[in-house]
Amino acid sequence: MFGRCGASDSDRADGRYSALPRALTALAIVATIASGCGGAGTTQPAVRATDASRRDCRARADAPIAIAAGHFAMGSQQVYAEEGPVRDISVNAFWIDPHEVTNRQFAAFVRATGYTTVAERPVDPALYGVSADQVPPDLLKPGSAVFKMPSTPSTRYMDWWEYVPGANWQKPYGPTGPDGVAGEPVAHLAYTDMEAYARWKGGRIPTEAEWEYAARAGGPDTIERPTEANSWQGVFPVRNFATDGYVGIAPVGCFKPNAWGLYDMVGNVWELTSDYYAPSHDPARSSENPAGPSIKRVEGQGNPGGPARVIKGGSYLCAPNYCRRYRAAARNPRDTSLGASNVGFRLVYDRLPS
């Protein structure tokens, strides 16, 4: 559901709305978010901190990087239960984007194809089994979920998120906010938008195993917050000291790459994978190129947008006091039908695109 997946930098103990009728769950939660929660705050553009200039944010190459076949210990038993059990996994060789797909890259796709994203289309209430007269008019307008910083401390994700009509990949903070920055990760995309880009580009969305293997880059499991990652420094969600140089999303490649030359595998924005989400790794599933649980296993989890998929790596909203998901093993469910300002993606390739 949106509360568990859209506000994905929270512990999922928040937002369990099992008592609501399944057909109304997503719209009810979005309606609560869209109400502004008593005017707790305002949407936050990606304001640059004064020390951002110390980082090297030159444009990075887009050419995919070759990842050799290998094996690794996938998962963790150190932080959150859903990250286990740890399994010895092997993956075939593949290529992967060196950074998250950017607004510049997605704009090239839109120019070439005329594609319109889900966030730019009116909402169809029939998808949730309700009629239009049951839905507040603003919730039927094209839009997406935008993070806002509340003015007072809160542990309620609904105080941090707002459904903003007119928010999309081109206007990530809404129609009155700044335009999307060319070198920043593209956000506010539904899974179908990412798949459309992947088909055009000749790639695919990575499996969770491929993503985690690439993110670890041969390194061990660690629970320490990396210094070379865009995360939240301070008390989430009310104070961000931005000692890493950024309050919001950073351009791709501002932080040092991992040992395999991959930028922002941890932090900046969550990255969507192709695996359906289940709240643990299945020890009975194949250890060779696993692709996550079947859709049958995850159906009926109460997500009106369809079965959730796994997101990886945490985002600029992750902080030690609330979300320790700035790690390769971190995983969370994500509603695939709705975009948000802290979720992006990158592609993998079975062969180099022409």
How many DSSP helices?
6
Percentage of β-strand residues = 15-25%
Query: Can you give the helix content as a percent range?
Result: 10-25%
Q: Total number of β-strand segments? A: 14
Structural class: alpha+beta
Spans where pLDDT lies below 50 across 5 or more residues: 1-50
Give Rg in angstroms.
19 Å
- The topology string of helices and strands comes to HHEEEEEHEEHHEEEHEEEE
Write up what this structure looks like.
The chain is globular. Strand 8 and strand 9 form a beta hairpin. It starts with a helix and ends in a 5-residue tail after the last strand. The strands form five sheets. Strands 12-11-10-13 form a four-stranded mixed beta sheet. The N terminus is likely disordered. 15% of the residues lie in helices and 16% in strands. The protein is an alpha+beta fold and 354 residues long.
Sum this structure up briefly:
The chain has helices at 2-5, 22-34, 103-113, 191-201, 208-216, 295-298; strands at residues 41-43, 65-67, 70-74, 87-91, 94-96, 143-150, 161-165, 234-235, 239-240, 270-276, 309-312, 331-334, 343-344, 348-349. It is of the alpha+beta class. Strands 12-11-10-13 form a four-stranded mixed beta sheet.
